[in-house]
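Hi C.,

You asked whether I'd gotten around to modeling the 183-residue construct. I have! Everything is below, sequence then structure, no commentary in between.
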Amino acid sequence: MGPDTHGGGQLYGVVFTLVIVVGVMAMRNRRPRRLRLEAMWIRPLIFIALIGATFATAPPPIGALGIGVLALALVVGVGLGWLRGSLMRIEVHPETHDISAQASPVGMLFILAVLGIRMYLRSAAATTPIAGLPATAVADSLILLAGAMMITQSVEMWLRARRLLGEAKAAKTDGPTNTPIVS
């Protein structure tokens, strides 16, 4: 076995994983899915618990640079989450007030780009510290970025779905309409 065999295997593993992720995401996002406002708090709570448990088990490195990177990851994660959430199509049925959400193709490409960048940074940090940061600090910042992105996406979607539902209820009292409220 040559030295390239191990690296090639890792590359194939990453490509295989990306193909599976793309396939699952494409199948899942083909049709709109029902969105239940009353249960949208569960997903952010799970992510907060997972991040908290991860950091409680293995605390991130403390230091000015490490804290700065974590803060940057949090800010970037919130921004990316808001963007990803805003790319989701949300529709409220005018009569039943059922809410559905469907990911946009742009949103899917966006999350794939984030996953690719994350995989690249993770593998790069494993071999060489990035800007003097150890691999654990980079990994912790990626966990925080992903968690912040998912939590913020849920919050953005909840706020927008609640607003659209209010508009649909107001439109129903003003007069009947057959056009769904979409954002």
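If it helps when you're writing up: The chain is about 70% helix and 5% strand.

Thanks,
B.
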